[in-house]
Specification:
- The protein is α+β, with helices and mostly antiparallel strands and 540 residues long.
- It contains 22 helices and 15 strands.
- Helix 10 runs antiparallel to helix 11 and helix 14 crosses helix 16.
- The longest helix is centred in the first third of the chain and has 18 residues.
- The chain is globular.
- 26% of the residues are buried.
């Protein structure tokens, strides 16, 4: 018995995410709401938990005879490349391995509300207007985020309320009932309490959790340091805990105590003393390269486990690693934003550095670090990395989310000596990105660089089962009437197969006019071929 295919859709905003599963007839199987999906407005940890809960709900809602091959995620903030990459990575980690498609929340709202031309206006946590004209062309106005746009949104309304309060307090605006209502809600009687509350959440829940743990005299866990050859100590595990303590001691953020926000110097003296006298347990790691490497492979790191590159940084610490980290692990580096278009990962977790090392060493990172450990410059590393990025930008003028995380180093090694017409490559990439039959858009760029030969990279959408059955039945009936094979190519070929009637299982669908030459994946352009001829036919 074939498994029932179901469809899943998420409508994710800055406040909540609705998950809906439907059967082949459009009937709801399960619907449930979860937390926010927009990391432009919520913390990554909150969004990560929303995704885990949503995927678990999908898994629990699917019966043993159901499969969910495609998930469409409509979400606010989809124009933020990092947001879609983060959501996709977390969805995969949570266990969903089917095909993913991302759309803006305004697109799914328009599709759900209007079948023809028209427009929708969304005003939730953010705001955006989206429309479609009579020719099917899409238009968008607004929706550029709470810092510079989103008029009429929940965030904008809240911001206007607080503006009214502070202006009324110092006489720049007319006093209204809003001041008393806001002060009452925040349990404060002066504007300073409002300001402290307003900016405290931006510090993040993890920092606050560290301070609350110390105040409750809970252990923070073991911190791991690596002793460098010059005697200095480098943090291997525990950076966030150490930084949180330092920021709080210098009054960079507040914690709540007795339902009121307090910075360090405003805390009661006994609580200040608890923090100042807190004991931190530190383990110093030093020894030969083999000893350090074995130590990392056997010890259970407390907190967030070190990844492979962080371990290698510790094993081969020295001037080369220090210099490389100052460039590729520095979140304040102005180039990081440009690199993020092509490199996936976190600067702080050494993933940009790992990518640069992979590219220059041809995936022999450890050997490269061994050879260059005592180098005082990173000229080769930096130059090669910049060359790869510049090459990609020279071939493809437009940048797409799907370009991030590809193996650009390998593609550079294979194709950088091949001449390309940038205008032609850019136009072809845009055409394929808009092609509804291309399922794997990440494969577009390697497909084009390789001369448009390997269509497997695109995972072109195939004909559905019902279309195949109708075409098979029609071809077979006609073939029997004419006394020829129901495979058109067999009918023109060898005598032994010229009249053979193949079963449906012995055949597969093929484009009459090749997809790569403009042929549509439609019933009118479908033919059934025997498996031998189907596999042998090129340019499908």
């Amino acid at each position: 018995m074939m498994a029932e295919r179901i469809a899943a859709g998420w409508d994710g905003g800055g406040t909540k995410t609705r998950v809906c599963l439907k059967d082949a007839y459009g009937k709801d199987i399960a619907v449930c709401d979860f937390g926010p999906l927009n990391i432009n407005g919520a913390s990554e940890e909150v969004v990560r938990q929303s995704i885990r809960d949503a995927v678990q709900f999908m898994q629990q809602s699917c019966g043993k005879d159901m499969v969910c091959p495609e998930l469409v995620i409509g979400m606010a903030g989809v124009s933020n490349r990092h947001a879609t990459e983060f959501v996709e990575e977390t969805v995969r980690q949570a266990g969903y391995q089917g095909h993913l498609q991302f759309l803006g929340d305004q697109e799914i709202a328009l599709a759900g509300a209007i079948t023809g031309h028209g427009a929708v206006l969304i005003a939730g946590t953010g705001s955006v207007c989206c429309g479609r004209d009579r020719n099917g062309k899409m238009f968008r106005v607004g929706g550029y985020g709470y810092l510079i746009d989103d008029p009429g949104s929940g965030y904008a309304i809240g911001r206007d309320i607080l503006k009214n309060v502070v202006r009324a307090v110092d006489g720049r605006g007319r006093a209204t009932c809003l001041k008393e209502l806001v002060f009452q809600e925040l349990k404060t009687d002066e504007v300073g309490g409002l300001i402290t509350w307003l900016y405290s959440p931006a510090t993040g829940k993890k920092e606050v959790a560290v301070i609350e743990s110390v105040l409750k005299q809970y252990p923070l866990g073991l911190l791991y340091f690596n002793r460098l050859p010059d005697g200095r100590l480098e943090v291997l595990d525990g950076q966030q805990r150490i930084t949180s303590l330092g920021r709080f001691l210098t009054d960079k953020f507040s914690v709540m105590s007795n339902e009121l926000p307090y910075r360090f110097h405003a805390l009661p003296k006994d609580q200040q003393t608890i923090i100042e006298n807190a004991t931190l347990l530190v383990y110093e790691c030093e020894g030969t390269e083999s000893e350090i490497k074995q130590w990392f492979q056997t010890i259970n790191i407390v907190g967030i486990p070190l990844n492979a590159q962080e371990e290698l940084n510790a094993v081969y610490s020295g001037p080369f690693v220090t210099k490389a980290r100052s460039v590729f692990s520095n979140s304040r580096n102005a180039n990081v934003q440009k690199w993020s278009a092509y490199v996936r990962g976190s600067v702080k977790r050494q993933e940009f550095l790992n990518t640069a090392l992979n590219w220059v060493s041809h995936d022999q990172v450890e050997e490269y670090m061994q050879a260059h450990r005592h180098d005082t410059n990173i000229d080769e590393l930096q130059s090669h990395f910049n060359d790869v990025i510049a090459w990609v930008e020279s071939v493809f003028a437009d940048c797409y989310n799907e370009m991030c995380g590809l193996k650009w180093g390998q593609l550079f090694d294979e194709y950088h000596n091949t001449p390309y017409d940038p205008k032609e490559m850019t136009a072809k990439a845009a055409q394929l990105m808009d092609d509804p039959y291309v399922k794997n858009r990440k494969g577009i760029f390697e497909y084009l660089l390789g001369g448009e030969k390997d269509t497997r990279l695109l995972d072109v959408r195939v004909f559905d089962d019902s279309t195949k059955r109708r075409v098979y039945r029609r071809q077979t009936e006609e073939a029997k009437r004419r006394g020829i094979s129901n495979c058109p190519l067999c009918a023109m070929g060898h005598e032994a197969r010229r009249t053979k009637i193949w079963t449906e299982k012995e055949m597969d669908a093929d484009h009459v006019e090749a997809w790569s030459k403009g042929g549509a994946t439609s019933e009118e352009n479908c033919q059934m071929l025997c498996l031998t001829h189907n596999r042998a036919k090129g340019n499908k």
